[in-house]
Specification:
The protein has 2 domains: 1-45; 49-173, no CATH class. It has 2 helices and 9 strands; from the N terminus they run H-E-E-E-E-E-E-E-E-E-H. It is of the alpha+beta class. The radius of gyration is 27 Å and the shape is elongated. Strands 1, 2, 3, 8 and 9 form a 5-stranded antiparallel beta sheet that branches. Strand 4 and strand 5 form a beta hairpin.
């Protein structure tokens, strides 16, 4: 009788352990699936914010500056570029707020200041993600080419991969 009771206790403990471990495994699988779904939604909507890239060129097509930054959703971001030879001198100041519109467009509210060229501009733009848009600044002295993409997104990954490939080809050519 004692042997039968001990056997029953062992079987019960074995079944209980299998149930607990199996339930834990199922819980891990369900939570992992849910986390992957959340990451996919964040990736699709650019939950971290927007990458805003600006390229300024002069009338001859020479690149004057190429600032870029990631604007967190609902906040403005800014960058100030100093002259490397004279660190106290500002070459460019750039502030931008980027917001994703329900249509999928990215709305930009920007301010730009280039003391060296006496250019100061501010305005609002609506950009298609991944498409460049050029705007004349000042008296047509400068052209600002804007690009905005959600972060994270496939477009953001493509931009980073293209830059990485360009840098590696330059290094290989050297």
């Amino acid at each position: 009788m004692y042997a039968t009771a001990a056997k029953m206790v062992r079987v019960t403990l074995l079944l209980l352990a299998a149930f607990v471990l199996g339930g834990a495994s199922a819980e891990v699988a369900v939570r992992t699936r849910d986390a992957v779904k959340v990451a996919d939604v964040e990736r699709a909507t650019g939950a971290a914010g927007q990458l805003v890239a600006l390229q300024l060129t002069d009338g001859l097509g020479q690149v004057v500056a190429r600032p870029r930054l990631i604007c967190p959703a609902g906040k403005s971001a800014q960058v100030v570029l100093h002259d490397p030879a004279r660190p106290a001198e500002v070459r460019l100041a750039f502030r931008v707020e980027a917001e994703r519109e329900p249509s999928g467009e990215i709305a930009l509210d920007y301010e730009l200041w280039i003391p060296e060229r006496a250019v100061s501009a501010k305005g609002k733009l609506s950009l298609t993600p991944g498409a460049e848009q050029a705007v004349q600044l000042g008296d047509g002295e400068l052209v600002a080419t804007w690009l905005a993409v959600p972060v994270p997104s496939a477009q953001f990954d493509a931009i980073i991969d293209a830059e990485r490939a360009a840098r590696s080809s330059v290094v290989k050519a050297s």
